[in-house]
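All the exercises in this workshop are built on plain-text protein records. There is nothing in a record beyond a sequence line and a structure line. A learned vocabulary of local backbone shapes supplies the integers on the structure line. The question running through the whole workshop is how a given chain folds. Here is such a record, shown just as it appears in the course material:

***
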Amino acid sequence: MNHLCRMVNVANGVTKDRLNILRTKGVDTIMSVASIVQGIADNADSIIETGASASSLGVRWCLELDVMPLYEGVLKEVGDDIRMFVRKAERGGFENVHKLFTKLAENAATPDFIQINTETFSDHPEISLGFEEQTRMINAIINAVKAVCPECKVILSTGESADNEKAKKWFNRFQVSGGKKFDIIALRYALSADTFYNLSLNMSDLSRRFEAEILVDISGQKNAASADIGLSDLDSAIEIVPLDRGFGVVYSNEGLDEATLVA
């Protein structure tokens, strides 16, 4: 395999047998999602199992932190009191993520990366926050992780993979609003000849502008192997990201069975 990271999106509790199969295909990193709720640290067995399995097989692990379930619980408590929502959600995000990572550390199952979805708030019709408030919420999550795992790398994920103006605007505002340091920008993307050139331009600009590595996430595309842009074309575009900041690709667990990764 070339130097690119090969990441696959799996469910927590994935078996070691499946991880071994993925590893033989060249996968070196797995990604799973933790739905953050109140008291998640007390019900984290499947998350711990995933991290421990990855560690024992020498595979890196990225844990995506989905905080919306926690925020929805806070919203039910406070209603339309946005100031109270921000205070409780910010504190709840920090406390629950910190307790979860403490539990993971106690079980030698800490991830190498975390991922946070930048569209967390814009996707919810009942939560309307200013950008500074959104930044505070994201910072609380990053701070909670770094307090336990300072070496864990931070991935910020966006769906604006082929719209450079929108992607650039979000990351600019995040930095101006005091956003914490991040390491990798993940671009969620569906392979298509119509948007591939725009993806390439976006990767190059974002990597230079924000000094971040670039990860392309095609895990939402189950039939990526049959797309009109091949996986080898995607690899080539990532490899020429300036300053060697092309990080890798995220595949779907199901779709990877039919895909051929490039050596």
In short: Residues 81 and 253 are 41 Å apart (CA to CA).
